[in-house]
Amino acid sequence: MDRLINVAFFVARPGRTDDLGAGLLALVEQTRAEEGCLRYEIYQSSADPHGWMVHEDWRSRADFDAHMSTSYVAGFMARVPELCGGDVEIRQYAARA
């Protein structure tokens, strides 16, 4: 199976930057413990504090799909419309080396 790398970009609504960051950071420990998670990191933009990025690396698409179906990810994703000022931009990559 091919590895799957995702980079997701979030922009917080005005006044919700800390809430968005806390929500993203709350996912880290459980996600890193998941079967198939090779990397899961959260970054806050140094140029725009409202911008956040998630960089995740999965052993396979099946592992990522299982991650997305967990209750904690579903709970966070349900809050995204109240936390973010627009759509989350997700870019997916396949590892080639």
Would you mind describing this structure in some detail?
One of its GO terms (molecular function) is monooxygenase activity. It comes from Allosphingosinicella deserti. Keywords: Monooxygenase, Oxidoreductase. This is Antibiotic biosynthesis monooxygenase. It holds the Pfam family ABM. Helix content is 36%, strand content 31%. By secondary structure, the protein is α+β, with helices and mostly antiparallel strands. The protein has one domain: Alpha-Beta Plaits. Strands 2-3-1-4 form a four-stranded antiparallel β-sheet. A hairpin with a 6-residue loop joins strand 2 and strand 3. It is globular, with a radius of gyration of 13 Å. The model has no long low-confidence stretch (mean pLDDT 95).
What percent of residues are in strands? 25-35%
Structural category: alpha+beta
Biggest pleated sheet: 4 strands, antiparallel
Low-pLDDT runs = none
According to CATH, the fold-level topology is: Alpha-Beta Plaits
Distance between the termini: 13 Å
Brief descriptors of the model:
Alpha-Beta Plaits; 97 residues; 4 strands
Gist?
The chain is α+β, with helices and mostly antiparallel strands.
